[in-house]
Amino acid sequence: MIGLSSYLVLAALVFSIGLFGVLTRRNAVGILLGIELMLNAVNINLVAFARFHGDLTGLIFTLFTIAITVVEVAVGLAIVIAIFRVRRTVDADRLDLLRG
Amino acid sequence: MTVETVGFWLVAAVLLGSSLAVVLTPNLFHAVLYLAAALVATGAVFLLLDQPFLFAVQLLLYAGGVVTIVVFAIMLTERLVGERIRQTSRHLINGAIVSAAIFAGIAGFLLQAPPAPPRPEQTADVTASIGRALVGPFAVTFELLGVLLVAGLIGALYFARSEE
Questions:
Q1: Residue B38 pLDDT > 90, yes or no?
Q2: What is the ipTM of this complex?
Q3: Which chain A residue has the Cα nearest residue B72?
Q4: Which chain A residue has its CA at the smallest distance from B59's CA?
Q5: Alpha-carbon torsion, ordered B101, B103, B106, B109, to 10 deg
């Protein structure tokens, strides 16, 4: 029987891998993919807690996070394309216009 | 070894392997395909947790929607620049140290936590309960989500429009 902590450790591992991607990727799209992994890990946590505590709210919350993530990806990629049109690059290290 | 145990370790191996491939492969297009595999594996975790409805939502929205959008974005930007976009990483060791420290922090917290309750038996039909909750206590939030989707749609159109 797989316990709650197994699911939580699995989610923590996926979260750390996603964080690693966000920290190390140079490409803005690659960073977005890392954020996707991190949000997925959070969803696993929410569903696991909801299942083991018999609480419906976690499942509803997961539905909302999934929908919000989809919107976030759409707007984020639109921004990436807009930046790419102007700057001809999606390298996050070279997009430093707002750096003081 | 029950079916659930074998399934969990199988799904966990696929999920962790494809997640690592997402952050490590040098080809951005391959990274998106590995992300699709990771998202489907996450859906399989939902199935293991007796949530077939969330599995369907995960497949439709994430593996269907998000991956399609990202693939289109990559194809568009590659077409604009006229060459393959290299996907390089930097500060690999620093990143590994930070994420390992975060994982160690979470794992330490999990070790201190009181023992989890045993998994209760699935009694009612969860999909029906989710549907009733969405039009009952969560109706306003559900409507707000629709507003957010429209705002995101308009925002994406605004950012990605052509100048003319």
A1: yes
A2: 0.88
A3: A77
A4: A66
A5: -70
